[in-house]
Amino acid sequence: MHSNDDLLTLFTEYQRSQDLSENTIRNRRSVLTSLAKTLPSTLHEADVFSLRRFMGQEGISKATKRTYRVAIRAFYRFLQEEGLRDDDPSTRLPMIQVPRGEARPFTPDQVDAMLTSGAYKRTRAMILLGYRQGFRVSQIARVHGDDLDLLSMTIVTIGKGRKERRLPLHPVIAELSASMPPHSWWFPARKDPTRHMQPSSVTGLITKAKLRAGITDPHLTPHSLRHSFGTELVEHGVDIRVVQELMTHEDLSTTQIYTRVSDRMKTAGIIALPSRPIPQHSGRRAA
């Protein structure tokens, strides 16, 4: 019988052969490691009741439960398809309905506070890449000087699904590039400068800048800079399809989650409707 470590290693190799991102692989392994700690035996012997018990723990949000379910379903489907297990207990896990998310952007004033409250140059660059280029922390971490083309004002990045995209370069990022390494990683790993920093390190540095700026809202995270990017594009009248392309979303419905409609825009929408006279009488007598 395979040990938990053996199974997780085999599953990791399988996912890499699918060309899944390292972040996805790492997150799934974390879920399965946590699951293993709750089981009376091994992952290989788990039954549906144990899986449901793990997903039904108190204090876990619906979004987290859905993440757990995706990881568990992928793992046990792999075991069955590879002949490592006869059945797939995860097929009887309940579906998790998660309410549609809402945008949680930083305000411009909050971003200014993050940039002027003692953050070092490297952290300020990270904040601007999220705020004005709309990058995820994984994209920020791997920015390389050679990704930028200042003649065409474009930048190459790797988005979700490891898809390479060439996007318009925001003038602020072009200006920023003058003080960043032109032919190497902008954010090299401390122990090995030939490699880029881990996304988790980017998250940690931006979070510190947020707290230093006195922003304590737990719903505002480094990813909220991306929400600000999308929201401000809409605020400035950019077509939602253009916003979708700039945010490299496959589905327009995902873009809509990231773009909060401001009160100003709602008011402008109401005012845009033409006025009309208010009848002083019902007209019933004439009828």
UniProtKB/TrEMBL annotation:
Alphabetical UniProt keywords: DNA recombination, DNA-binding
Signal peptide: none
Stretches assigned to the Core-binding (CB) domain: 2-80
Superkingdom in the source lineage: Bacteria
Keyword Lyase: no
Family under the similarity heading: Belongs to the 'phage' integrase family.
Protein name from the UniProt record: Tyrosine recombinase
Species in which this protein is naturally found: Microbacterium soli
